[in-house]
Every structure is written in C-alpha cells, then in structure tokens.
C-alpha cells in the first residue's frame, strides 16, 4: 500500500480509531492490532511475501531466546551467524542472485570460458533491505549484550513489521523502537498534531516535489543522448530533488504516522542539501542507514582508530557496501565509491567533524563562505546522483560527458513542457525556502507558523493540501521501494 | 483525543465541502462524452458503431438510409470504455439496437494509451472507471472509485481553458480545431487532406503487451451484444495503400487468425474494407478518411446493412 494512495487514506483512519478506541486498554491487543494492520498493509502489495517477514521474525525471535540462555561464546557466535546467514541469505537471493550470476559469467567469459548463466525472473520483495537490517540490529545487539532479548513475541513481531516504516524505513534500532512496544501508549494531542503536520509536509515533498521532478528527470535521463549540456544539468538537478523529496517525504510520512500512534522514530533526514561538506551531508542523509553501517560495520572493522590504510579501507568498505545495499548494479557501487573519494580528504585531515551544528544557526542568511561550501557540496552530490540514476556505467559517463560540453552554456533543449518545468522550479524554490527556515526543526514545517493566528496557519496548510491535489500525478511508487 | 478529533473535523470540513462540491461540479461539465451519452439515451438508435479513430472519422450516420446510427467510436479509444457505457445503457433502457458495428483495424488489439484527462472526462461524464484502476478501495463508494488525479487533471484543464475562454467540448478540439464540425450522432468529420511524411518510417510497430486483455474485451463485448439479442458485426475501414505497406506482416496475420476464430466461435460476420481503394482526396491522412471518404464508405456500409 502506498502512502500517497486512496487505499492508505482509508486504511489509516480505520487503524487509528481501532487503536485508540477499541484496543487502548489492552497493550497486547494493541500490539496485535499493529501486527495485523502491518500485515494487511504489506499484503496489499503482495501477500505471498508476508511469509518472508513472518519467517524472519520467528527466526530472530527464537535466536534471541537462545542467546538469553546461552553463555558459551562459540555457541553464541553460531546463533548470531545463523541469523545473519538467514537474513542476508534471503536478501542476497532476492536482490543479488542475478547480479552475481551475470558478473561471474562475464568474468569467466574473459578467460574464454562460457558459462550458461540462466538468470531467474525474481521479484524483489518490497522493503526486504529495510526489515532485514532492522531484525539484524536486534540479534547483533542481543549478541553483544547491549539489549535484553524480548520474551514478548507479539511486541517483537510488531517491531519487525511496524507498518509506517516497514517498507522504506527509517531503519529503527531495537533499543529505540522495541521498548516502546512494552509500554502503554497514551494519546498526546501535540504529538499527534505534530505527526499530522509531518505527514502533510512529507506528502508535499513526495507528490509535489518528487513526482513532478521525476517527470522531467525521467525525460532527460531517458533521452540524454539527444540533450544539450544545460538540459543535462537541469536533469541532474531535477533528479537530485526528486530523490530527496521522494525519500525524505516517505520518511516524514512514516515518522508522522508513527507519532499518531504514540511512537517516536528517529529522524532520517536533516536538510542534507544545506550541508557544508560531504561528511556533514552523510550525517544528514538517510541517517538511519548511515548510523547502522557505522555501528555494525565501520566500528567493528576498526573505524577510524587504525592507521591511514585502515581508515581508507574502512571508509571504502562502508561506502561501497552502502552503494551495493541500494541495488545490484555497478552504478550504485560507483556512486558509493565516489562518495568515499569525496569523504576521504576530510577524514585524513581530521576535518570530518568540523560542521556538526546547523548552518547559519540563529541567522537569517548564511555567510558567503557557508553559501560557497553548501553549493560545492551540493554540486558534488549532484554529480554522484548521476551515477545513481543512470541505467548503467556507460550511460552515466556519456551523461557526464554531455554535461561538460560547450552546449552547457546554451538554453535547455528538452522537449517537455517548459512552462511546467518552470512551475516545478518555482515550487522547488518555495520548498527550499521553507526547508531553510525550518532547518533547525525535525521537519521543515514543525514550527513554521506556530506564532501565527490559527486561521493563517490553517490557510497555509490548505494551500499545501490544494497544491498536493493540483500537482498530484498518477500514483508513483517511492524510489526506495526498489531497494 | 476528543479535542484532537474535534480539531481534525473542524480543519477538514471546508476541505471536504470543497472536494465534494468540486466532484459534483465536474460531473456536470459538458464534455464530448456527455454529449454522445445524452444522444445515446435520448434517441432510439438501431445501430451503434464502436471503435477508434478509423471508425470515428469513417462512419457518418447521416448516410444510413433505413436505420438510425450512432457513431460511438473515438480517437485512441479502448473498446473497454464503449463496452462499459453500452453495458449500462442496455441494462437501463428498453433499447431498439439491432446491430453493433465493431471496427477492428491493425491497431485495435494492441495497447491503447488513454490519457488522464480523457479517463477523467469519461469517468465524470459516464461513470465508467478506468481499465487499470490501481485503487483497491474503489468498491466502497463511487466517489472513491477513481483516484483523485482525475480531479487534478480536469481542474488544470478548467483553469487553463478559463483563461483562454474555450469551452470543454472535445478532446480533439485543440489539435483539429480548424477541421472540427458539429458532433452529429457522434460523427466528427475531417476536411481536406494532410498526409504525414511516412518516408522515414519503415514499419508501424505496436505495443503488444495488452493483446490478451484487448481480445478478452472484444469477446466480452460480442457476448454482451449476443446476450441482448443484438447482431455484432466486425468491420475494417479503408486504409491508404501507403499505410498498408508499413504494416507488420506478422501482426496482420495474427489479427487475421484471431478474427477467423471469432467469426467461427460466435458465428458473426466480418466485413473487411481495409484494402478497398479510395482516391487520395478521400483520405485526411494515411489511415483516416475525410468527410468525402466517410460519405462514400458510409454509403457502402449502408448497402451492406440493408442487405442483412
């Protein structure tokens, strides 16, 4: 079920009313309702893949129980690896089987050996990369004795399949989300209205920004050979905002929906395009994934504690794995490598933790130096997104080749509706302004208008809602569903 | 909680009124589908023509001498919509329809891209939901049966048309404004000739992904007609020889085989005029007749029907 669908608009109020009016007095029943609602939410897409989630839930629950009583380190390790192999096994099969098969066949063909590589027609289960990482975090934390394994199977199931963040994150840690299922939730007016505001802003980013940028980004990327340099730059800009609007929009809707049910999820995006360097960008972009890799991969590998070689190796590992997590394509791997190359100079010169605060905090505008740093970082990420969006590596290189041509100083020549593209750029400028003024909040409109009279505030929300309806395209899936 | 729900209702009420009002306003917009639907319901037609642009521009009802004909075909229109509209008409009315001519041309059994604006117009004028309805909640209410992007597309069109002072009558109006004549019994004729340059095109290839569903809709339509004691007749309109040369042989053979099977299975006739040679000045372009061609072809159809 898509957040931006009529189905969800009906599903959410029904679950909300049942949750707060029917099951409120019984915590177990309330958690069971979440499990049921989450299975309906997921099964709406394809009920057959529910079995994967249920299997994963049962395996990790049982392993957690065994880890509670098992003291012998070698046996604990076996249990941990069982969970890792089961979870990553499913992920590997559904997501990477064909990729590895084709690449092995290609590698062998280089040595003159022809391998009959029959790829399988595999459907990637929606959200598998997200819930796999979420359940893994539970087992790893239990193994490390940082988390008490849960005895409550219903609460654990609810943690694994919690519908607002099941299919595209944020990837929640067990130590943050799981304990929230143990405690009785009480309805808080301010939390709920805050959640509604966050849903509204998330929908705006998805429907108005991402879907409209997608129209032009797709047109330009799909016909990049016929486009001049300025059109290609425009295409890259549209995609840069498409992916941000799409994914951060989803996260906002997920977090906002969770707040309606009394849950607090971690912030997943913190105005990343206002970052002053690439290290800051990665502290603000897809925070739940970046921190997951930091805690479960980068630090166990040694982090930045070792020598220069160790730092370089670990940085590349984390970015390459992050790229590969996004999909079985070399374009994602190069995207990860490029970000590692951007990041390394900052790490090696110990400048990677220079910009920890909010840009131009307490000021209306950034300084020229900050503006230059933001634009430089934005340009670097934009260049990397070209690899992320391209069909394959040769497409990415020819796209970049086209950007750095003389035609970059000519007027865009893409054949789409220019007026519509201009309107999209105007709305983009409006949303950038809103995000700038709301950059110190969890989401852009959290505090915007809090001092206004109610009628003015409502008018602002009505304008956003009408814009959502006016600019709504055909229901578009979220980009991160494919990951 | 009560305060939250009260605030939510207070906040949502103007929006709900706005969208319900808009919905009813949109239902009452005068579209070409509204006009043709009204013609269908207010006249006692004996013959209906179904199909896409080839039939839409080829069959002029005024040349039928003994029976009253409605041309229900439309440009790039999937048979699905015509079947649904006809189906509800046949349920409600004490109809007088004896024949239904179903146009089958080279394109008919392939994917038809129906634009959002047209889907919206069809929905608001006739209540027919789109073929690919993604929402699974449409069964709850007619209001929810079509996702809100229909509202968006019509609103956008209304806003732009309001400033240009154009009445929403026909979706083809913008492109064919100069050639448009009054809609009479569903017929909109094209005048003159405007042949496209086909020299660059070797072959007219089609998106075949919807072949099975198109065939299913065709069979369902035939069944619907037979069940209602109406005689279905398949036909193909004349196509310019330049166009015929560009057709893919395999697709033509597949269509031929399928049509033979349908004729045998349902015991119905197929009138193939695809290769009937007309003068160049009878065509608007390679695959559409103009007003002259339509008058000639309609007279031929009239003769054939009168012989039945």
Account of the protein in words:
The complex is a heterodimer of chains A (483) and B (308). Chain A has 483 residues and is an all-alpha fold. Chain A folds into two domains: 6-112 and 126-186, no CATH class; 190-276 and 355-482, no CATH class. Chain A is 68% helix and 0% strand. Chain B has 308 residues and is an alpha/beta fold. Chain B is built from eleven helices and seven strands. Chain B has helices at 2-27, 32-42, 53-58, 79-92, 116-126, 149-164, 173-176, 211-227, 241-246, 249-266, 291-306, and strands at 47-50, 69-71, 99-103, 231-236, 269-272, 283-285, 288-289. The relative contact order of chain B is 0.16. At the A-B interface, helix 1, helix 9 and helix 18 of A face helix 1 and helix 6 of B.
Largest sheet of chain B: 5 strands, parallel
Strand order in the sheet with the most strands of chain B: 2-1-3-4-5
Please state roughly what percent of the residues of chain A sit in beta strands, choosing from under 5%, 5-15%, 15-25%, 25-35%, 35-45% or over 45%: under 5%
Let me know the number of strands of chain A: 0
The CATH superfamily of the largest domain in chain B appears as SGNH hydrolase
Can you tell me the CATH class of the largest domain in chain B? Alpha Beta
Number of strands of chain B: 7
| Number of spatially distinct domains of chain A | 2
Radius of gyration over C-alpha positions of chain B, nearest whole angstrom: 21 Å
Report the total helices of chain B.
11
Main β sheet profile of chain A: none
Tell me roughly what share of residues is in helical segments of chain B.
Answer: 40-55%
Shape of chain A: globular
Please, what is the average pLDDT of chain A?
86
Enter the CATH topology name of the largest domain in chain B.
Rossmann fold
Q: At CATH's second level, what is the architecture of the largest domain in chain B? A: 3-Layer(aba) Sandwich
Amino-to-carboxy terminus distance of chain B: 72 Å
């Amino acid at each position: 079920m898509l957040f931006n669908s009529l189905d969800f608009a009906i599903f959410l109020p029904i679950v909300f009313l049942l949750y707060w009016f029917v099951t409120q007095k019984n915590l177990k029943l309330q958690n069971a309702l979440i499990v049921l609602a989450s299975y309906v939410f997921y099964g709406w897409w394809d009920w057959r893949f529910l079995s994967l989630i249920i299997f994963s839930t049962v395996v990790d629950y049982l392993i957690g129980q065994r880890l509670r009583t098992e003291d012998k380190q070698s046996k604990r390790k076996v249990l941990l690896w069982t969970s890792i192999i089961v979870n990553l096994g499913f992920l590997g099969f559904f997501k990477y089987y064909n990729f590895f098969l084709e690449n092995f066949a290609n590698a062998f063909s280089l040595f003159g050996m022809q391998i009959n590589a029959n790829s399988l027609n595999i459907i990637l289960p929606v959200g598998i990369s997200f819930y796999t990482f979420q359940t893994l975090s539970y087992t790893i934390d239990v193994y490390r004795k940082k988390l008490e394994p849960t005895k409550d199977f219903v609460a654990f199931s609810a943690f694994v399949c919690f519908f607002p963040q099941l299919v595209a994150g944020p990837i929640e840690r067990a130590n943050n989300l799981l304990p929230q299922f143990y405690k009785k939730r009480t309805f808080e007016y301010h939390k709920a209205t805050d959640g509604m505001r966050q849903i509204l802003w998330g929908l705006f980013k998805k429907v108005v920004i991402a879907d409209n940028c997608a129209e032009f980004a797709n047109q330009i990327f799909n016909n990049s050979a016929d486009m001049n340099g300025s059109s290609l730059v425009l295409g890259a800009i549209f995609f840069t905002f498409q992916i941000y609007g799409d994914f951060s929009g989803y996260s906002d809707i997920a977090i906002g929906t969770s707040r309606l049910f009394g849950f607090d999820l971690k912030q997943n995006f913190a105005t990343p395009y206002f970052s002053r360097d690439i290290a800051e960008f990665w502290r603000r972009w897809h925070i739940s994934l970046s921190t997951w890799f930091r805690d479960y991969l980068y630090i166990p590998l040694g982090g930045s504690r070792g020598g220069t070689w160790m730092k370089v190796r670990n940085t590349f590992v984390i970015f390459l794995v992050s790229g590969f997590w996004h999909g079985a394509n070399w374009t994602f791997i190069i995207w990860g490598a490029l970000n590692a190359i951007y990041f390394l100079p900052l790490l090696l010169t110990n400048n990677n933790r220079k910009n920890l605060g909010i840009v131009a905090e307490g000021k209306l505008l950034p300084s020229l130096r900050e503006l230059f740093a933001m634009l430089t970082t934005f340009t670097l990420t934009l260049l990397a997104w070209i690899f992320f969006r391209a069909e394959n590596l040769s497409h990415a290189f020819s796209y970049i080749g086209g950007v750095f041509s003389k035609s970059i100083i000519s007027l865009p020549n893409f054949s789409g509706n220019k007026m519509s593209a201009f309107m999209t750029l105007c709305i983009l400028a409006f949303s950038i302004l809103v995000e700038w003024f709301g950059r110190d909040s969890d989401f852009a409109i959290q505090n915007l208008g809090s001092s206004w009279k109610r009628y003015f505030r409502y008018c602002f929300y009505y304008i956003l809602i009408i814009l959502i309806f006016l600019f709504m395209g055909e229901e578009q899936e979220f980009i991160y569903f494919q990951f | 909680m009560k305060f939250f729900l009260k605030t939510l209702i207070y906040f949502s009420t103007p929006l709900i009124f706005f969208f319900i009002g808009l919905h009813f306003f949109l239902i009452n917009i005068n579209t070409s589908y509204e006009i043709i639907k009204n013609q269908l319901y207010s006249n006692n037609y004996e013959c209906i023509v179904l199909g896409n642009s080839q039939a839409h521009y080829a069959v002029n009802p005024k040349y039928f001498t003994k029976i009253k004909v409605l041309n229900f075909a439309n440009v790039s229109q999937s048979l699905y919509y015509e079947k649904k509209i006809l189906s509800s008409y046949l349920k409600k009315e004490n109809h007088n329809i004896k024949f239904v001519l179903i146009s089958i041309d080279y394109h008919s059994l392939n994917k038809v891209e129906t634009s959002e604006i047209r889907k919206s117009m069809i929905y608001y004028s006739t209540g027919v939901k789109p073929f690919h309805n993604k929402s699974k909640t449409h069964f709850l209410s007619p209001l929810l049966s079509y996702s809100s992007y229909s509202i968006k597309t019509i609103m956008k069109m209304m806003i732009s048309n309001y400033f240009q002072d154009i009445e929403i009558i026909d979706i083809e109006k913008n492109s064919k404004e100069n050639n448009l004549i009054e809609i009479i019994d569903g017929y909109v004729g094209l005048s003159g000739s405007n042949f496209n340059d086909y020299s660059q095109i070797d072959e007219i290839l089609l998106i075949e992904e919807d072949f099975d569903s198109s065939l299913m809709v065709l069979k369902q339509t035939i069944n619907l007609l037979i069940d209602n004691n109406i005689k279905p007749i398949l036909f193909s309109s004349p196509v310019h020889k330049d166009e015929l040369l560009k057709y893919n042989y395999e697709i033509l053979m597949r269509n031929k085989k399928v049509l033979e099977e349908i004729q045998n299975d349902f015991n119905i006739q197929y009138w193939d005029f695809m290769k009937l040679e007309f003068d160049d000045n009878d065509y608007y372009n390679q695959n559409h007749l103009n007003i002259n061609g339509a008058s000639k072809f309609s007279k031929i159809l009239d003769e054939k029907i009168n012989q039945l």
